[in-house]
Design a protein that fits this description.
It is a single chain. With 348 residues, the chain is of the alpha+beta class. The chain has two domains: 80 residues; 236 residues, BirA Bifunctional Protein, domain 2 (2-Layer Sandwich), CATH 3.30.930.10. The chain is built from eleven helices and nine strands. The chain starts with 5 loop residues before the first helix and ends with a helix. It binds zinc ion (ZN).
């Protein structure tokens, strides 16, 4: 067995250095290894210095091989540093044969999709989208909308109060988007006004398949000279056709909301069965779907806003986005929307 040549020595120390590098557990180990191998007193540097003592015929080849080895070791050191910095302690942790980690594709929440559909239609009809505060003052949520403290209509909205009942201005989580009607009118001394107000509302009530404590609404307000119930009907009719299909009809029935006179409840004819199916999952055979409340803005509210109610009239409407989303998306329990369940959300 012949004696190891100087070139064999390079290969041996290269292999040994690589093996020791694999044992490094943290950055302290790495630094110790670097000093020992690549540092000024390190083994690779020592080999470079030793070139002069070699027989001249192998100096050139020896120098080339040591340089090559140094490059390999520097590169292995960089890889080991990167692995330790990413918490990956083994230098062979990258297994290219494993399947990749799937990247989940994000999407819009189903309620966001429907809110945007609703607003898109109203934008085309000339309404500007504005938003109001979710923490609201008692006076805007109730008083200025003709719902005084002892008014029975307050029972409709069991409320999340945010401060003491006897404070000067009680704060609450708004129960509807209607306060923004008042805020917008106060900020705009001269009509015309055409706004759509989307936003979350909160009601302190028990939840079931059709009730949630948090809901989204879209509010409409139009104030101008000569606005009548016919304008309200035409606007909602066009909205219903663009949302639910060109053949849709709407039906208005009298209802009561303190801030409108007259008030109406608005239904559309069933787009699934036209009223022909007794067990229709959407209209339950009635042929109609109640979708929203609306009415002509009460003259007192127009006057309180600083407009002359003998010149200006207007209409308002409010709709629940979840209710419309359930109808459009065939969802039977409103609680799914905010359950954060991926199995539900990934269907949209
Ligand atoms: Zn039906």
């Amino acid at each position: 067995m012949s004696e190891a040549t100087p070139l064999d020595m390079i290969k041996t120390s290269l292999d040994q250095a690589k093996q020791r590098l694999e044992l490094a557990q943290d950055s302290d180990d790495l630094e110790a290894w670097r000093l020992e191998v690549l540092g000024r007193q390190g083994s690779v540097t020592a080999m470079m210095r030793g070139i002069g003592e070699l027989p001249p015929e192998i100096r050139k080849e020896f120098g080339k091989q040591v340089n090559l080895a140094r490059k390999q070791l520097e590169s292995a050191y960089e890889d080991a540093t990167a692995n330790i910095n990413t918490g990956n302690h083994s230098s062979d942790a990258l297994d290219a044969t494993l399947p990749g980690t799937p990247t989940l594709r994000g999407g819009l929440h189903p309620i966001t999709v429907v809110r945007r559909q609703i607003l898109d239609v109203f934008t085309r009809l000339g309404f500007t989208t504005v938003e109001g505060p979710e923490v609201e003052q008692d006076s805007y949520n109730f008083g200025k909308l003709r719902i005084p403290a002892d008014h029975p209509a307050r029972d409709m909205w069991d409320t999340f109060w945010l401060n003491e009942q006897n404070s000067d201005e009680k704060l609450l989580l708004r129960t509807h988007t209607s306060p923004m009607q008042i805020r917008y009118m106060e900020d705009h001394p001269t009509p015309p006004i055409r706004i759509a107000v989307p936003g979350r509302c909160y009601r302190y009530e028990a939840t079931d398949a059709t009730h949630e404590w948090m809901l989204e609404q879209v509010e409409l307000l139009a104030i101008d000279k000569g606005i009548t119930l016919a304008n309200l009907k035409g606007t909602l009719q066009e909205w219903a056709r663009q949302m639910f299909g060109a053949k849709r009809k709407i039906m208005m029935r009298h209802s009561y909301f303190p801030f409108v006179e007259p008030g109406v409840e608005v239904a559309i004819d069933c787009f699934k069965c036209d009223g022909s199916e007794r067990d229709c999952g959407i209209c339950r055979g009635s042929g109609w779907l109640e979708l929203l409340g609306a009415g002509m803005v009460h003259p007192d509210i127009i006057r309180d806003a600083g407009y002359d109610p003998t010149i200006y009239t207007g209409f308002a409407a409010g709709m629940g986005v979840e209710r419309i989303a359930m109808v459009l998306q065939g969802v039977t329990d409103i609680r799914h929307y905010h359950s954060n369940r991926f199995s539900f959300l990934s269907q949209f």
